[in-house]
Each structure stands twice: as C-alpha cells, then as structure tokens.
C-alpha cells in the first residue's frame, strides 16, 4: 500500500493557508472587524464560553464594534472578558449592548502589526514545508518498497514541489495584502 497521497498533502497545505488567513483576519487594522473578538472568552453561568455564544457581534460603523448581549445579566461579564482579552479596546456599556470604538493606530503599533503579519506568514510557510518533507519521505519509502518506479517518484516529487510553491506564494500574497492594509489605514 503506497504511503504517498497527493490529495492529503494538498489538503494539509491548504489548511495551513486557511489558518494563516484566519490569523491575519484577527489582526486589528484600525477598521472595525468582527473577527477581532473571536479569541474573547467570557465567564458566564460558572464556565468560560466564547463571546459569540453569549452575544451577537456586529460592525455598525467603520470604526465601531457593537456586541449585543443576549442575557442582560451577562453584560458586565462580557465587558470584563473583552477588557481581559487585552485587545486595546475600551468597552462602553449601553443598556444590553457593549460598544467598542476602535482607537487610532500609532505608527509604531502599525509597524508591530505588520511584523506580526510577517511572522504569521512564516509560520504557515514552515507548516507547508513540513508537509512537503512528509510527502517527499512517503515517495522515497514507496520507491524503496518497490511500490512505485523511480520515474513515478520523480514525478511525484515535482508535483509536491509545485504544490509547495503554489501555497507558499499564497501565504506571501495574503501577508503582503495585510501588511499593506495595516500600513495604509
């Protein structure tokens, strides 16, 4: 039974790129983005729950997030959870809503965020290269066991390298777009 599976390798590389995109979406650019609050957890009913399970998050204005808490008793818990998440946001309670105005980013903070975007991209590229290594090793093992020919091994290695190049380029593009967005807002 051959160990090499092109579809699995492509799926894993695609997963690394998707993970990068979700990490980049969480970076604050000065514009209100609901995904900014994804990592926030709130202590309600004696347990820790993600914010999106106790409230609805929306962006009614370009520089404002609004969190509509479903249970009025949880409003202060949501405010504390947002403050504890250390996102640089100042929650303001307005009845059953929590409003979050987006502060302006300083030039220094913009550069830090751009550098962080680059770090996220590098992590994703490392994951992609690890998948490439696994694919290459599987091909070598298959050839050693005489399950595939040497020519098939070479073709497989070329396919894996092309997939690697494709997904590394996607990582570079996503990071460059995010850096541009951060630095020009």
UniProtKB/TrEMBL annotation:
Lineage of producing organism: Bacteria, Pseudomonadati, Pseudomonadota, Alphaproteobacteria, Sphingomonadales
Matching CDD domains: RRF
HAMAP family, A to Z: RRF (MF_00040)
Keyword annotations from UniProtKB, A to Z: Cytoplasm, Protein biosynthesis
Localization terms from the record: Cytoplasm
Record-given protein name: Ribosome-recycling factor
Entry's family note: Belongs to the RRF family.
A Pfam family assignment: RRF
UniProt-annotated stretches for the region Disordered: 137-160
Major place of residence: cytoplasm
Function: Responsible for the release of ribosomes from messenger RNA at the termination of protein biosynthesis. May increase the efficiency of translation by recycling ribosomes from one round of translation to another.
Domain Ribosome recycling factor: residue ranges: 21-183
Species the sequence originates in: Qipengyuania qiaonensis
